[in-house]
Amino acid sequence: MVSLNLIKEEKNNVTIFPKGEYILKICHTVNAHEDFVDKFGGYINTYVLEDIPEYLVARFYELREISIIERNADVYLPHNEFMENLAKSEIIYGYTSIFFPEYIDTFLEFAKKGKEIGIIVSEDVINAIIEYYQDNLEFGLKYKNVNFYVSDRNMRYSFIVTDKLFSISFFMKNGIFDYKRDFICSTRDCIRWGTDLFNYVRENSTKIDIGKLK
After folding, report:
1. Which residues face 169 on adjacent strands?
2. How many angstroms separate the CA atoms of 66 and 72, rounded?
3. What is the H or E stretch that residue 65 is in?
4. 127-136 residue pLDDT tens
5. Whether 30 contacts 154, CB under 8 Å
6. Which of 14, 33, 64, 194 lies in disulfide reach of 166, CB 3.0 to 4.6 Å?
7. CATH of the domain at 103
8. The whole model's pTM is what?
């Protein structure tokens, strides 16, 4: 490394040059990518990932600590650990292209408690909400801490990111949503990645208010 001008050795002291620090960062990123592939690599050919922007795909290594939660009971109900973490969160952002009516009452309770909530749904989901739960939607939109959006195009995944955790689920390449698996992580890197994904979807969405529902 001395011959490559990465470090300088003087007696018992070793000084790392900027070039050496840069190489170390690259090695750290490569190792993190390997960790991510070790955990998620078996699903890369299974899930639709094309709706994730390239700059976030390049940062998949930030999800290296992600865990896979397999649901063996009712796959349509959120698991207890996930709901407990949501209850502890003060900021809750998310996007879904799947209609989960079982979440409606929970999010209304969160809104009443003053949690900061930002929800984005696909066009199919907003149509279902308006048809069956418009009163609930209008009630929720009265809270200043609630923002609601409809995505301009259908993103083939659903996720929630809070100040405590990030959770995402995907569509499989056969067009079926995988209700059985959630990918969950609570590290700072994962939460940052999930927040950036939310911001990307929000930039490609239209905000909804009560006036637009009339």
Report:
1. 158
2. 19
3. none
4. 999 999 999 9
5. no
6. 194
7. 3.30.870.10
8. 0.88
